[in-house]
Amino acid sequence: MTTIRQDDFIQSIADALQFISYYHPADFVAALSEAWRMEESPAAKDAIAQILVNSRMCAEGHRPICQDTGMVVAFVDVGMSVRWQADMGVEEMVNEGVRRAYSHPDNLLRASMVADPAGARRNTRDNTPAVVHSRLVKGDRVTVRIAAKGGGSENKSKFTVLNPSNSLVDWVLDVVPTMGAGWCPPGMLGIGIGGSGEKAMLLAKEALMEHIDIHQLKARGAQTTAEKLRLELFEKINALGIGAQGLGGLTTVLDVKINDFPTHAASLPVAIIPNCAATRHAEFTLDGSGPAEFTPPKLADWPDITLGGESGARRVHLDGLTKEEIAQWQPGERILLSGKLLTGRDAAHKRIQDLLQSGKPLPEGVDFRNRFIYYVGPVDPVRDEVVGPAGPTTSTRMDKFTEMMLAETGLIGMVGKAERGPSALESIKKHAAVYLMAVGGAAYLVSKAIRSARIIAFEDLGMEAIREFEVEDMPVTVAVDSKGQSVHLSGPAEWRVKIAEMKKAL
Predict the structure, then answer these.
(1) Is residue 61 part of a domain?
(2) For residue 414, which of 19, 70, 214, 470 sits 20 to 30 Å off, Cα-Cα?
(3) Domain tally for the chain?
(4) Is the pLDDT confidence value at 308 over 80?
């Protein structure tokens, strides 16, 4: 009978989470590298290049791939012949591993979990609790599949119950464009088919734990209904032209994974859960011999990429910037930002709204007049860092506050990731402001452009506090110009036509 010691299990959880925070899976790097080589859209190719360069930097520097270091999700299969040497339950042990991982002094990870979700939403400070799914299985081993799931991609999860005669493919192709770019494509789609409502969602989530192998499947040919669907959806989703970061291009998904389960004759439950460009997951098995070991990938696995640098980019100094100057910027134009900008996310915007509605002044030092705000919740710094990885968060969550910020605070520009919705586009056009896009999934790369950082308000919000960053040559793209024109609308539309023409030519 195998005996699993509590400390071995906890240490394995902690080590796995540290490992996946800075190492992409090798299959993901290979698939993304191939997508970069094949990409013909300049904007998408540059975005993929930034993600790959960031990935290698993280592998070398042992710092998080993304500032959103994820909600921990663990699938734990416990062999029925296993004996535990432990005084904690499985979920307690997983949570203790999470605490150790996220507080590691050499690689602090961002705590994103909040308690009282419908109320105070207080940060738990250690990223617990994890979402744990455990089951008893045959055997004398414990197998764990664990992931750190970012909020931007998790928020795009979709579920429906189709009539059995409805087209599953049509539903997926209708839904994927509505997911926008907040899930940071290119990535994977996990699809669960069948079972009940909750079973379909679990099937989709488990599918994301699998390796990317769509090209191997294409080479050998589909043998099951699920495999046929994978190939069909892979081709048709990429034909939508959404592309990397939603900018338009050849690759939107690197793979489509499908798990299915028998279901009621009257139902066809279907769930979609995307994995972003910060794909982070690992699997390990404990046999009683000690904690799990994880083998780092080779640096040779990453392609040799040199980023575009300053060529063709507009250099902009944020201090003293005017609306007249930003009115000259064009959609899709590359910008290198230098100077000072403020940061803020959902919680900070809500507090600003409450203060303005009650007639109270903003906190001392918070002055948005003729300034830019960066939607970010950075990782805490370690060693000589001024800030940890600090990539953008999904900007559409701030759409409800955009009119207030532009009309009442004097703000003239915003920096984030993904598209803006109709109300935000209208406000940007109305106030002749601009919205700039940084690449989601390149958080460590972005942080290297930040020369100083200090908290100036709402310190109790932790990573959501308002900070002032001083940046030098921070790379961004004009996503919405002062006339309200959005590259997240024009880019995919253009590439959808181009891809259709390419297919006709074949």
Answers:
(1) yes
(2) 70
(3) 3
(4) no
